[in-house]
Amino acid sequence: MPGNANIMDEQSTTIRLLVTAASSAIANRMISDLRHAGLSIKAAHTCKGDELATLLCTHSWDVLVCHSFPALSAPAVLQTVQQQEAPLSVLVVDDHIAATARQALFREGACDVIATNESERLARGISRESAYRQLHRRLAALELDFRQTAQRLSHLMDDSPAPYACMLDGLHIYCNSSYAALFEYPDTDTIRTTPFLDLVAQQDREKVRNLLQAMENNASICIRGLTLNRSVHALKCLFTPTRHNGKNCLQLKAEHDSGNAQYREELEKLQSRDLLTRLENRKSFTNRIEKAILKAYESRIFSALLVVELNALVDISSSIGKANANMVLNDIAAWLQKTIKMPFAAARLDAHVFGLLVYESNPDRIILLGREIRTQINKTLSPAMQDTREPGCSIGMSLINDNSHDAESVLERARTRLPQEHPENESPFSFCGNETGQHGASGILRYLQMALQQKKFRLAYQPVIDLKGQNRPGYEVLSRMLDSDGKETSPDTYLWLANLNGLGEQLDRLVASMVLEQLANQALEESLVLKITPNTLVSRTFLPWLSEQLSCRRVNCGRLTIEISEVDLYSTRDCALNFCHGLAELGIGISICHFGCAIDPYPILDEIKPAFIKFDVTLVRDIIYSTQQRSHVQKMIQTLHARNTKVLIPNVEDMDVLPVLWESGADFVQGFALQSPCHEMHYEFMVEKAITLAAQQ
Q1: Is the pTM here over 0.85, yes or no?
Q2: Alpha carbon of 576 to those of 263, 308, 579: distances in Å?
Q3: Using one digit for the tens of pLDDT, what is the confidence trace for 401-439?
Q4: Which domain covers residue 529, as residue numbers?
Q5: How far is 333 from 574, CA to CA, in rounded Å?
Q6: How many CB atoms are closer than 10 A to CB 238?
Q7: What is the number of structural domains in the chain?
């Protein structure tokens, strides 16, 4: 290596580090610190611009660390990297860079600007950028492999005895010799200039047009094809979306048809249908959702999924008989197919659960559609329900947009909106529970998206008090969106829309980041309780993100508790259990709120082992006046204590209830009577004061 370039001994590592510094002593000290931090690196040092250019040309590097000094400043290093078009990340180390200069460095391509004494941050930055470079190289290798695979596939198609062609807007852009021979054309160039419909008999052309217009994935059709001399023969054509020479197109495989083609078509159609209702079955419907997600990502064409659950179907079956209940089910299915005017697909997902895929993304119009569905289904069920007070159906919804991941997560998200069996508290159509949302959902959604981007949220804290006075108060963290005037907005206005549009996880990440930043920057002894949305509960990416954040910020996991609603827990049982097991692995406590809504809420506690549970407010609403309710609460608390689970009583709005709760065995209390949510954590449940009485004369 030329000049003063000093290459360190190569070690078994993938991190290749290039350092620019005023002296080799500075570089050696930095490399020593990095190795003590656990990094194994191959490194080189230079202090001259021409040597830097040579090193960039002759070697491959992952990261460049620039200790800026007058002879080789950070802007000069960045300019050299750009001139050499070197694929590596640049980290600038300097203690005296103004804010405006930092912005200029970022614009010129610097990945980060780090102070000299921030060795841990530098190590994390090098690890991060090295990992990014490795991923970038893997992507380039995969792209090369993909191109080579495409070339091999093209050669296979050219030599294949099966007839293959590629079409774009009904015109051939590729076909092999077998395809040309199938239609008795002399060569591929001649048939390529012929539109595909000209190869189809007149009576089948409309059928082909309809298939191609409605096709979203694989599709097959039996047609009568025309040869060059206009003779007719039966063909079976299989269409598949693909790419050819960088263009989205349809691949066509054609073959001579044989056997009973009409029977095969009918069988393929029946295999996608539910036997009882003749709606689509779950498998077919899941494929439709996947296509809708693909449309959302590629074309930003959004849609909505509605999940309709017939709450009382089991009771109806026992009272009027299964056969009559099936007739009711068929009536509902027939109405869904014939009456709804929007383009949609309907499916039977479970014994008494329907799925509706609606090609509409305006929340206001979807809410109106949901009300229409609920009203009609309740009318259909009313004669069979007799005197039951339970609503006929409940409806959940999730929008399919560019925040959607896969069909199962979209289905789970819709199911979390279904109310549980406590109709006195839940509307049958639970996601339209506030007047603001009913009239201005689209406007609120736009503002919510902007607020998430600009982080226009503020945290509030409500104390969780230990009734026995043994522990310092903890705090439940609440988020408040700020309106255009900087005033706080009630969560009831926007939270349901966040869940509906898949923005709940983004909101939870923002709030969690704010909480972790506070825990890392302040010497707090209090524990914080963070409630998550149903979107996060079904997410497979939130826990890995949270683990990384906890590690980077060095936050004690024992000071954080995640709160999950029992309603969401039972709506998405499998996802929720996996999520809770992940929390336990991270050492984060679990709290269950709205406890007691389920018919048998205890068995799931053995699988989750929560730190504490929060009773549903209906269990303690009249505990002062009702001895029966007081006895019921005491038995529940005793059962929970036997499982080593502590109990929190929320919504305490009267101080007179505290002795009753203490006598019942409650561990924690929370409510407006103690303190309403505020922006500071300064609550004192017990205060020692010295009182001096004036002596009597």
Answers
A1: no
A2: 44, 21, 5
A3: 777 777 887 887 777 655 443 333 333 333 333 333 344
A4: 507-669
A5: 28
A6: 13
A7: 4
